[in-house]
Every structure is written in structure tokens, then in C-alpha cells.
Amino acid sequence: MKGQEWYQATEVAEEYDEKRFSRGGRLIDRREKRAVLEALGPVEDKRVLEIACGTGRFTVMLAERGAEITGLDISGPMLQEGREKAQQAGVADHLEFMRGDAARLPFPDDYFDTVFAMRFFHLADTPAKFLSEMARVSKNQVFFDTFNRFSTRSIYNWLLPMGSRLYGRDEVEDLVSGAGLSLVDAEHDFVLPYGLYRQIPDWIADDLREFDTTVGSTGLGDKLASVSYWDARV
């Protein structure tokens, strides 16, 4: 997986949320959480697995809503940040964080109601293998996001230290089909790239986001979107 050593560094884990989801980045955090909540629906008493849970942003959020959730990640320092976040939220007894490899999930077939991954497939070197494993352990839903090839992200992607794997819709549909899944819904957002939001203060980011969503609601929105959220069923 791209950036595996970087991602497991303690200093990266400690600064991860602050660097990505403060200032204008809070709008990204808000949109991603809304995407997960809308896709998963009511989660109380549902068994949920989050792949590449990182610092536990979504894991803790869903635990607070009554899910029986497991967060899996390859980074020990990231998981430690998640455990501390769960303690602060008072849900440490209602979730489990596990260190593991998403290519070899340590769970039996059809074990979870929902399996999801956010900010994972842009780093995946073998996306078909990861998605097949997610489908194997889910008895119902698989949800994930991608960065899109034909978008503003493609303009600067080569400048990023790790780069990103960018996807076209046809490629995602082939991956979904190859994993034995059926695509039931897709949403597309952020005509402007994530990186721009992180570099600007809140008051500018709010106006920029309003412009972004206005353009996104037009006929060009889906074609220009840099991020897509994919909802599939087993």
C-alpha cells in the first residue's frame, strides 16, 4: 500500500486530524461523515467493520450511535489515537480497534452487516483484492470512496508525496462486479480539490464550498467531481 511506512509513524498519527480537518478541512470532515451516515442509515445493533479506520473518526461516531463496530488499521499509532478518542467520547467499551491487513481480514464470511472504507482506495495497490475481502466478510453492504481520474485532482496528483490512485467510473464498476457486488448508489462531490480547502481559513472555505456545491449541482457536477462515494450490496 502506498505510504505504508509514513502512515505508521507516531508523529503522523498525532498530527493527522489537525492537519486535515481543521480550518477549511472541517468541511471535508463534515461531508465525509454525512456520506457515511446517509449510506449506512440506522446502525444501532448492527455489526459494522471499518477498514483503514485510522484515528477512529467514523468508528467512534458510529459507536456513539449504537453500532457494534470494529475498526481495523495497519498502523498502531493511528489505532492508539482512535482508542484515546473513544475514551474521551465514553464509548471505549462499545467498539474494538484491531491491527490487521485489509488484504487478509481475520473474520469469517458474512460476519458483518456493513463493511466500509474511507480514504483507503486511493492508496490501494491491489484494489480488487481489498474489495473482494470486504465483500467476503459482509452479508449485506459495502461502502467506499475514491478519488476520480477526470477531475481537478489529476492536475496536481503527481506533486503529492505519495500520489493517489485515481479511478474512472468504468474501473470502479468493474471492481464492484469482480467482487461479486451490485452497485446500488453513487454520489459525487468536491469539484474543487481537498487540498485547497485545507490551506484556507474557515470564512473563505465556507464561501468556496458554496460555490463548489452550486457547480456540483449542475449537469457538469458529476463529471468534474474529484470524490465519489460508492454504495454496493452483496
UniProtKB/TrEMBL annotation:
Q: Which domain of life is it from?
A: Archaea
Q: Could you say which residues form the signal peptide?
A: none
SUPFAM superfamilies hit by this protein: S-adenosyl-L-methionine-dependent methyltransferases (SSF53335)
- The molecule here is called Class I SAM-dependent methyltransferase
Species of origin reads Halospeciosus flavus
**GO annotation (BP), single:** methylation
Instruction: Tell me which Pfam families the record gives.
Output: Methyltransf_11
> Record's InterPro entries?
Methyltransf_11, SAM-dependent_MTases_sf
